[in-house]
Prior knowledge:
Elements: E1 5-10, E2 13-18, H1 28-43, E3 49-54, H2 77-85, E4 90-95, E5 98-100, H3 102-109, E6 112-115, E7 120-122, H4 136-144, H5 146-155, E8 159-160, H6 161-167, E9 172-173, H7 179-192, H8 214-223, H9 225-228, H10 233-246, H11 249-264, H12 267-281, E10 300-303, H13 307-318, E11 323-326, H14 330-349, H15 355-362, E12 365-368, E13 379-382, H16 388-401, E14 407-410, H17 417-421, E15 430-435, E16 444-449, H18 455-467, E17 471-475, H19 483-499, H20 504-514, H21 520-527, H22 541-547, E18 560-562, E19 568-570, H23 572-585, H24 594-614, H25 621-631, H26 641-648, H27 650-664, H28 672-680
Parallel strand pairs: 2-3, 3-4, 4-6, 5-7, 6-9, 10-11, 10-13, 11-12, 13-14, 14-15, 16-17
Antiparallel strand pairs: 1-2, 7-8, 15-16, 18-19
Bound molecules: (S)-3-Hydroxyhexanoyl-CoA.
(S)-3-Hydroxyhexanoyl-CoA is lined by residues 22-23, 25, 58, 61-66, 77, 98, 100-102, 105, 124-125, 128, 130, 132-134, 136, 277, 280.
Amino acid sequence: MSDVMHFEVENGIAIVTIDSPPVNALSQAVRQGITDGFQQAWARDDVQAIVLICGGRTFFAGADISEFGKPLQGPDLLSVLDGIENGSKLTIAAIHGNALGGGLELALHCHYRIAVPSAKLGLPEVHLGLLPGAGGTQRLPRIVGVPAALDLMTSGRPIGAREALSVGVIDALAEEGKLRDDAVAYARRLLDEGATLTRVRDRDDKVAPYRNKPEIYDDFRRQHARGFRGFKAPENIIKAIQAAADLPFDQGIQRERELFVELRDSKESAAQRYAFFAERETAKVPGLPKDTPVLPVTSVGVIGAGTMGGGITMNFLNIGMPVTLVEASQEALDRGIGVIRRNYETSARKGKLTNEQVEKRMALITPSLDYAALAGADLVIEAVFESMAIKKEVFARLDKIAKPGAILASNTSFLDLDEIAATTSRPENVIGLHFFSPANVMRLLEVVRGQKTAPAVINTAMQLAKKIGKVPVLAGVCDGFIANRAMRTRGVQADALVLEGVAPADIDRVIYAYGFAMGPFQMTDLVGLDVIGRDSTEKTVRSELVKRGRLGQKQGGGYYDYDENRRPTPSPVATEVIREVAAEKGIAPRTADDAEILARLLYPVVNEGAKILEEGIAIRASDIDVALMMGYNWPVYTGGPMFWAETVGLANIVAKLKELESRYGAAFKPAALLEQLAASGKGFRDA
Ligand code: 3H9
């Protein structure tokens, strides 16, 4: 008998309950528990059927990812599942919560499946750089057909129980809250009806129409080329599904195994699995006791209805929280609210919201031109122009109006939060909530703790972030916090390389090839040369281009010229401006190959990350990775700059930085922490 399994028999039906918090991942103990339960059930003459059900909040959420890369401890999952499918007694999976990955694959080995309406079922392995490796690629197409299987497995999208019923992934719906009883009754009914022990593996009708049709997969690849770029898993999933259609079942399973093992051992999957745990780690704040209070936040105030303020507001409306939105003029207020409405209406047109939901969310906004309207808010977020003088004025006013205990947050992206907090009588209630643009879309939220921010305020912000669907990363006060500070170094080097004669298009190409959606100059042209970067009196290529009316894609072109379809070509004007500025600064042209360009651009990001870590601005290296993957779309399959640096080798990075330092000076001086770790052969985790 195992600790995680409970066995009982009721009226000839064995109920095997697995309870292994938090998510019933198929760990060694769980696999052993399932084996023990089934063996008992098979051995008993009074048992005619078996219901497999989970305790806690969910059905099995998949293989235990933390076991990957470690020596396997039996029983292995595939043998457990084979046993169930080929077992002599009718077996029913009873599903609540999530049946994901190996969890759904397990259910597909059972002879029948029943779920409560709120259950979700899916094969999300693609997000971990894997494919469903416990028969999922061979069984799901046998139920839903090839096109739907391609969509579900390459997107990793879970489906609800009702949809699962309509496509045949489950066979029956249970009443919410009555899964156990309904599953037992369902088993009894099946027995009474003389139902057969159906095996998904024996079905052929849904895959036969797609047999020997390679064009289906080529079309699918073409359609999704952009989204799949750089990832290894989608391609292997496609190949495995093709095998499901083209090969006999056992050969298909063999093919699945080869393709799975290739992914499991790939650097891409290692990075994506790291990212999975890193994302969950960010919420853990050392030094914050478990019993730190969470302050109630039931109403929010937002100051500033511009792009940021509007996006921030939407996050709260989306979870049904009322927002008082304050602006300086009626015109700005109307414009901001208009943008929010248009965003929601676009979602409604795409079928993501009903018109009723749009109206419900809009009705949660209380617009105002008066700060006094913020008096009742539990949390006020300032999203005004990025100027210390203005922010100080806003906080001084807010201090007089906000109720005692209210959290006062600034959305500043680089200003000194402590200086802002000092203008109030309650710096312990002041915190930074740095949203990334578009604030209603980007999942990163940098929570910035000031010197005096109270633990309860930090805790509340971290919890609230999760409620609005953000991944909170805690940062200390410094210029640019984590993501912007680290990435600024890439921008500085990109500008320097251009002045040395490397074409912007070459830099963009190298960054794109690394896996970013676009390079820094394409990005600048897209966002606008007049809005990117901070005000400065220094003459730069960018300032010169702006002077010549080149603001980017929106006006006159930027680093590139654009045709009427916004297709870019290198701009002779930009080339001329670059030459002029370089000549004025006395910078001699040089060439750099792709590897040199990449090192120049990205090693400084790693180095800055190491400084951020050694200064204690970030709690852990993986928080920096999460911030850059979520804030700047750093390719997930590299694991972020810090994880990637370890795959390159910290000693290699330090050696290259030193070489660059000798040529270009202190900007490349390796961080002390980086040097230490490289010298001792350690990684950031040991820092
Ligand atoms: C697979 O199945 C491969 C097979 O095809 C082939 C095998 C041969 N393993 O997300 P949460 C932990 S691959 C280990 O905050 P939620 C998680 O780290 C797997 N641990 O909760 C966290 O720990 P902590 C395919 C796991 O309610 C805690 O559980 N399956 C696993 O927001 C709570 O997690 C997936 O990809 C796991 N599989 O969301 C599903 N899953 O508290 C992955 C979770 O120490 N999981 N943990 O930080 C999820 O998507 C979400 O966790 C879930 C719950 C939706 C289930």
